[in-house]
Design a protein that fits this description.
Arc Repressor Mutant, subunit A; alpha+beta; five-stranded mixed beta sheet; 22% strand; 288 residues; SH3 type barrels; five-stranded antiparallel beta sheet
Length: 288
Amino acid sequence: MEVHVVELDRKQLRLDGETQPREKLDKKHIEDLVGDWNKGAQFEPALAYYDGQDYWLIDGYHRNAALEKLGESKILVEIRCGTLKDAKWHSYSVNQHKALKRSNADKQRAIIGALKHPYGACRSNVKIAEHCGVDEGTVRAWRKKLESRGEIAPNYERTVTRQGKTYSQKTTRIGSSKLNHQEQQKFKVICEDLPYHGQVVEVVEVKAGDCYICRTATGDVYPFFKSELDSVDSGVTPSVVTPVVATQQESTREQLIALVVRLPENCLDDAIALLKHKFDDQLPLLPG
């Protein structure tokens, strides 16, 4: 793809094509950029798609807002040739490694946009997750929710690339035996400390360490451990998951895993402090 870096008049940028990757602009980040500019910093080029008539901005909305606040009429932009459809698809993949981390709303915006986009129609959940920089289970949950609402059509065919060849593959029977046993397993949350206590959840994926990734009745995806779940009469004989009634006290290891897996991203210091508080002197080797 041909790429050019040019200085454009900011008025030439189109911001109304639903190519804004974030749910909303962060005012503090804009002020920080203004401060950096006044100290002599130069912004890296923004990113826009040119369709022969318009420049569709997909990355650099905060930089553009900062330059507007500074009264600057020009902006440095990396230009790629493509349609508005191309610009929208690319916008779902940006901001994954920026200093200003994406919010959950930003990620949700990318997932929904990608699932509804023509380029995402025949892509698997894994490929969409890779494009958006999110967990595959979250994409799967949103696909199911949008399909149930009638906002997207069920995806019974996907594009597969193997050994350098790309072709279409039907998905109606792939893993049907495994999914029938695994995804139909339902359990009741019996841990009073969890937000879904008393609710019935459905197993989506089984991970190591007795961790079950489950979908709640509202479509949320949440990790549980075997000691937090009790079996319910689902009419399905368990094969992948063996339900265990929580009659014993959780081990320290289980408590530690359960605590760590639910912590927000990028909070190592808070995690260490919380773990020290939770387990006191049981974790003497954690850095201070």
